[in-house]
Each structure stands twice: as C-alpha cells, then as structure tokens.
Amino acid sequence: xxxxxxxxxxxxxxxxxxxxxxxxxxxxxxxxxxxxxxxxxxxxxxxxxxxxxxxxxxxxxxxxxxxxxxxxxxxxxxxxxxxxxxxxxxxxxxxxxxxxxxxxxxxxxxxx
Amino acid sequence: xxxxxxxxxxxxxxxxxxxxxxxxxxxxxxxxxxxxxxxxxxxxxxxxxxxxxxxxxxxxxxxxxxxxxxxxxxxxxxxxxxxxxxxxxxxxxxxxxxxxxxxxxxxxxxxxxxxxxxx
Lengths: 112, 119
Fold this sequence. Notes:
The complex is a heterodimer. Chain A has strands spanning 4-6, 11-14, 19-25, 32-38, 45-51, 54-58, 61-66, 71-76, 85-92, 101-102, 106-111. By secondary structure, chain A is mainly beta. In chain A, the strands form 2 sheets. In chain A, strands 2, 4, 5, 9, 10 and 11 form a 6-stranded mixed sheet that branches. Chain A has a 5-stranded antiparallel sheet with strand order 1-3-8-7-6, with no helix packed on it. Chain A is globular and about 40 Å long. By secondary structure, chain B is mostly beta strands. In chain B, a hairpin with a 2-residue loop joins β7 and β8 (75-80). In chain B, strands 2, 4, 5, 6, 9, 10 and 11 form a 7-stranded mixed sheet that branches. In chain B, strands 1-3-8-7 form a 4-stranded antiparallel sheet, with no helix packed on it.
C-alpha cells in the first residue's frame, strides 16, 4: 500500500467552479499536510500547509485535514484559468528532518 | 526563499550512455535533494546531498546508478548512469528552506526539472 494516495484526474471544471482535491494516507504519524502546485514544465511550489487536524484558509484556497479518516482536501473557490496546474499533496512527520511523502498529483484544468 | 537553476532542461539520450544534471542554488544550503518524477507516480526522493560527505540514498537507489557530487554549498550534480528507457523521467533538484525560529515543516523549493528521454 502506498503511503499517500491521490486521484491523478485529470479534472476539468468551468471557470468559477469550486474545486475539491483529495488525498488519503496510511500512516497515522503524519503531522504536517501540505499542498504543492506545479505548473507545466515548472517545479512544484508550496501552496499551503496544515498542522494536524482542522481547516486553514488562504484567500480562495482552503486546506482541510481529517486525521480520524486519514483524509485531506484542498478546496479552490471561484476557480480561475490560472489555477490550471497539477496539485500534489505531501505530508511529513514532526521534527524528523526532510522526508516528505508525496501523492501522484491531480491535474486540474479550469476552462474559461 | 531560494532560486534554483537546473540544466539541462531536457535531453534525449541513447541507451547505455550517462547524463549529468547540474543544480545551482542562489544561496548557501546545507542539504540539497534530488527527486524523480515519473508519469503517474509520486515525486520520489532519490538522495540527499550534503556538502563534504557522501550522499544518502533512499531505498531502491544506489550510488553506482545515480552518483552525486556536492562540491560546495550552492551546487550539486546528479549523474544518471548506463541509462535505459526506464530512466526516462523528470529529475528535480530541491532545497529545504527551514526557518528554525518558526514552527512548521519547512518548505521545499524546486528547480524547473530536467526532462530526460532515453531511447
């Protein structure tokens, strides 16, 4: 079983739609949950992260963690064509250095 | 933050040959990381490159296949040796910029990647 599972999509939505991206994981010791965005032919860049369970909002983006279900989500409100990218979830333990566990990424296209 | 330059950005290589990928960072960093990104697969850590010591390889990756150099605090190279079509992938250089005074997981900064196709 993979540490982190993510539906690769592709996901295609009209501009202005609410987008929901999800990952599941198997290791209950993960404490930090991150979302990276990767534009075509670019490296991933950190979008936001959440510690333990709960929600975190940053503009149009909301990250949600449910540790009891081992399930994390990223919601994008009022989606724009510029949100078209691959979104990778990642997670790591607390205080254990630099080992990040990534999902496969979900490819999102927002159609004008 | 960190700005990372990688080259080549892409290359097409013949089976059995080797290719060296270069990674330059705009600031001094202790550790540099090399990842592989294959279609439909997770971003996978190949090894951690520390200046002044041998690289630390993850399970499934060996030094003979992926030798790494780290001559100073801003530069590293990854060589993909004796290539086969299975080595076709995007190879990414990364650094972790961690604010020690700030609670959090750190932030990985990535280069734009080197897209390698092996025929």
